[in-house]
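TOKENISED FOLD:
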Amino acid sequence: MANQWCQSHQVKLITYFNEAHFYTLDPRVEVLSLGYVPNRRQPGRTVDVALALAAFRRKVLKIRPRFVLSFMNKYNAFALASLWGSGTPVIVSERDSPTEVLPRLRVLARDSLYPGAAGAIFQTAAAQAFHLGRSRIARSTIIPNPITRIIEPSERTPEKIVLSVGRLVGKKAVDHLIRAFGAMQTPGWRLMICGDGPMRATLDAQVSSLGLSSRVDFIGAVSDLRPFYKRAGMFAFSSLYEGFPNALAEAMVSGLPCVSYDCPTGPSELIQDRVNGRLVPVGDWISLAAAMDEVAAEQVTADRYGEASATLARALDPQTIADRFLEFCDQSAQKARQ
């Protein structure tokens, strides 16, 4: 959105940590960092937060923006606390699943500070309902994530490859996907896993114990996913919970037939079961295996799912989403100043 907005507005991006950026930013976006180091131990972390609250307020008051848009619940609470009483409208954007278990202090900060927001943006109807039930939020809306196609659907040259993309962490349940892949009855398929994380060694051991080492490839973190999307015969998504599943959405708009856990929240707002993909009960890896077999064994069905899922590109177009964000933020800021 910063890359979209900077074409017609001044955009300043303030980050808490002083780290390299994974994504490419338009040079017109001015990046400011509060300069803190991640993963400091207590009590240094507490001191950092106290100093950062004051530093963030100083930076924002100097910039005098039309509004501040913050992302993720802990940074939403941080921005609201920092700018309390300043007259600067803050719009918060929730990115996490409402079912995710959070530290008690963060929940308390979120629920008590969100009523002070000029507006709140949620990714799904379930997330909006959850938060409106906990906080008196004045204005809110539902806007999905902007999704850019990794490839055009016409570029696909599918092979017998199940593709997975995501961090190797517990909530992604890649161990479920590996079990499901091992239970597939359709012969000749491989599993390619793009991503890295703390569970890599555990998942390697699981693959070995199931006798799948010759059929499962851990690709690691990659910056260019196009070669994998072109070759993939299907995309499998096994998260136990999400805010909004970007990886699944990217696969769908790129025309890949997708099989997913129906986790809270997001997949059911993208996939209509047996219309543009397959949804199976979250945690049921046996059903996940059966759905993968269906897509692997029935090429006509796989093609139908891929063609139908590609039509989501229009609704998730980055320019469309950026325009919706900007319109809501502007309206919320104007109302807050009245």
In short: The chain has a mean pLDDT of 94. The chain has two domains: 2-143+318-337, 153-313.
